[in-house]
Amino acid sequence: MKAELVYEGKAKKVYRSKSAKDQLILSYKNDATAFNGKKKASFMGKGRLNNEISARIFPYLHEHRIKSHFIERLNETEQLVYETKIIPLEVVVRNLATGSIVKRLGFEEKTPFNPPLIELFYKNDDLDDPLINDDHALLLTDITYKELNEIKAKALEINTALRELFQSINLELIDFKLEFGRLQDGMIVLSDEVSPDTCRLWDRTTSEKMDKDVFRQGIGDLVEVYEEILQRLEARS
Ligand code: TMP
Questions:
Q1: Centre of ligand 1 from the C-alpha of residue 90, in Å
Q2: What residues make up the domain containing 13?
Q3: Distance 21 CA to ligand 1 centre (A)
Q4: Domains of the chain: total
Q5: Ligand 1 atom, smallest distance to 176 CA
Q6: What is the average pLDDT across 84-113?
Q7: Ligand 1 close to Cβ of residue 200 (< 6 A)
Q8: In Å, how far are 11, 13, 15, 26 from 4, measured between CA atoms?
Q9: pTM for this model (two decimals)
Q10: pLDDT tens-digit series, residues 13-30
Q11: CB-ligand 1 contact for 100 (6 Å cutoff)
């Protein structure tokens, strides 16, 4: 049962849960945005698909000893999570060069990063989520140096687990973005969502893009692609 709306983001609404005061309800919206909200659309079914997909990914990560805010899927578009105080960092892990790193630093498209490359962005819409370094992250958030290193190590562990998951459904995990949050007891856990909105996934056979880039670049049907990912995940379990 949900109580008052706590926050509305671009892709989700966050409600307080009536049953427990340290729990929230995430309601996935049909809206899609790109380029910091400059491109916008709504797709019937997108909220359900990202809810269903992330409600399969978080338990998979739990099985791989990755703690997150996720508790359970409640219905088609909602999931129950522990309340966290989001650390305003977007932690991006890259296995192959594409997207902003190609434009920003001139890497050739598909350059492999081995070990995977981690980048930090400051989660701040007014500033357009700028790339930052570790020292900036320590100044701009309440995390310690040790916690920052733990977050990075966790991001790499998540990368290993997710690459395996997606490989098993014939998808290559190119890169993705994570957010972490602090539980009431201070522990830092994976938060937000893990979905085709926040990952780049390429079909291993056809190289077809199967993520939000189909919307960002206007090259395909977002709902069809997300539905295909969900079906592959369902077939796996
Ligand atoms: P980028 O190449 O545009 O920096 O994106 C890196 C990864 O982060 C890619 O998988 C998409 C994801 N991402 C988000 O989840 N949210 C964002 O706002 C941006 C810019 C990227």
A1: 9
A2: 2-82
A3: 32
A4: 2
A5: 10
A6: 98
A7: yes
A8: 18, 11, 6, 12
A9: 0.98
A10: 999 999 899 999 999 999
A11: yes
- Are 129 and 66 contained in the same domain? no
pLDDT at 2: 79
Domain assignment present for residue 231? The answer is: no
Nearest alpha carbon, ligand 1 atom 16: 198
Is there a single domain that holds both residue 50 and residue 156?
no
Q: Residue 151 carries which side chain, given as an amino acid letter?
A: I
| Burial (Cβ within 10 Å: 0-12, 13-18, ≥19) of residue 191 | buried
Alpha-carbon Rg for the chain in angstroms? 17
**Per-residue pLDDT tens for 120-159?**
999 999 999 999 999 999 999 999 999 999 999 999 999 9
Q: Which pLDDT score, from 0 to 100, does residue 8 have?
A: 97
Q: Is 50 part of a structural domain of the chain?
A: yes
Could you give the count of Cα atoms lying within 13 Å of 56 in the half-sphere of its Cβ? 20
| Mutation pick for ligand 1 pocket among 36, 122, 128, 177 (CB with most ligand atoms within 8 Å) | 177
Whether the per-residue pLDDT at 237 is higher than 90: the answer is no
What amino acid occupies position 80? L
